[in-house]
């Protein structure tokens, strides 16, 4: 009886790992497509940002499994990939399974601790600002988003997940002229409205699970870049691109960065090149990126379903 139970458990684990392997195979193809499509010149930076967001989330969200669940009765034509069955079966038994499990768990815990430390540091920094009596803080609203001014900040930033707040250093409205200040505010409002902090957190949680996948790391780097360029794009569309360049030149790079502040500083060179060129997006290029990416996503979901629905794991 015990042997039968153990065999059933092993087969169930092998099925899960088989699906996971097929899912990551086609998620990697989506990632490769994202690399090619986001290199197309003239396409909107905002479109490229969302391409990488979808690429990252596609790796962690098993869309094919949802299709399997609700349409399984109509997917009898699906067939597993024989090339994956044997290796997956071997990988999920004996010492190999133990080594892989320990390695994955160690990496996942390390990434989770990294995330916890970052969040704790940001909360401690925010708490020190909130309860400090040495610094005066005043608040206002911009398009429904709270804006706080404080001497503890040396550069603009956004905090909060569901209810974001824009943080600005006191005196920034005197350091910058009116149009430069408006350019900075437009950029930060784009972050806040899109809930970029929340998107970043969800991405980092997925990174804890798929820390071993190179496309997840690449997606994070590209998301960070296009997150800033897309917000700069909204500034350019409001004819404040030149003013944002001069504002960035006047603002000091912070020593202690909060939330999106650090990534914004790390991509400053690319941002200045983007803004200085006053990039003009071309609608045909943007539509081409959206259309081709949608086709790739659809095809990869279909192929995942084609090789996992009603699947069985091929034993050696």
The structural class is: alpha+beta
Q: How is the main sheet built? A: 4 strands, mixed
Provide the helix percentage: 55-70%
Work out the oligomeric state of the chains in this entry: single chain
Spans with pLDDT under 50 lasting ≥5 residues?
131-136, 254-262, 312-316
Q: Roughly how many Å is the radius of gyration?
A: 24 Å
| Number of beta-strand segments | 4
Q: Which percent range describes the beta-strand content? A: 5-15%
| Spatial order of strands in the largest sheet | 1-2-4-3
Mean pLDDT, to the nearest integer, reads 78
The N- to C-terminal Cα distance equals: 23 Å
**SSE topology string:** HHHHHEEEEHHHHHHHH
Q: Would you give an account of this structure?
A:
With 316 residues, this protein is of the alpha+beta class. The chain has one domain. 69% of the residues lie in helices and 6% in strands. The chain is built from 13 helices and four strands. Helix 3 (63-71) packs across helix 13 (283-308) and helix 7 (178-194) crosses helix 9 (214-237). The longest helix is centred in the middle third of the chain and has 37 residues, at 94-130. It is globular.
């Amino acid at each position: 009886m015990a042997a039968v139970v153990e065999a059933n458990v092993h087969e169930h684990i092998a099925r899960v790992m088989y699906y996971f392997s097929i899912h990551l195979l086609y998620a990697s193809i989506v990632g490769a497509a994202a690399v090619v499509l986001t290199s197309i010149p003239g396409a909107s930076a905002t479109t490229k940002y969302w391409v990488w967001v979808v690429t990252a989330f596609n790796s962690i969200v098993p869309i094919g499994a949802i299709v399997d669940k609700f349409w399984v009765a109509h997917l009898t034509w699906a067939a597993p990939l024989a090339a994956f069955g044997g290796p997956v079966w071997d990988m999920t038994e004996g010492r190999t399974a133990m080594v892989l499990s320990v390695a994955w768990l160690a990496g996942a815990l390390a990434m989770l601790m990294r995330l916890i430390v970052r969040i704790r540091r940001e909360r401690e920094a925010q708490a020190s600002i909130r309860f400090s009596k040495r610094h005066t803080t005043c608040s206002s609203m911009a398009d429904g988003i709270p804006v706080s001014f404080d001497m503890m900040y040396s550069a603009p930033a956004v905090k909060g997940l569901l209810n974001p707040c824009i943080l600005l250093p006191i005196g920034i409205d005197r350091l910058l002229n009116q149009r430069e200040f408006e350019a900075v505010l437009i950029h930060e409002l784009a972050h806040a409205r899109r809930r970029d902090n929340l998107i970043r957190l969800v991405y980092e949680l997925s990174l804890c699970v798929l820390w071993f996948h190179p496309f997840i790391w690449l997606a994070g780097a590209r998301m960070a870049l296009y997150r800033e360029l897309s917000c700069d794009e909204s500034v350019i569309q409001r004819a404040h691109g030149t003013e944002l360049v001069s504002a960035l030149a006047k603002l000091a790079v912070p020593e202690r960065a909060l939330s999106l502040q650090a990534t914004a500083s790390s991509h400053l060179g690319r941002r200045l090149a983007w803004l200085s060129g006053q990039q003009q997006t071309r609608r045909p290029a943007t539509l081409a990126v959206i259309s081709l990416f949608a086709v790739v996503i659809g095809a990869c979901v279909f192929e995942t379903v084609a090789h996992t629905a009603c699947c069985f794991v091929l034993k050696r």
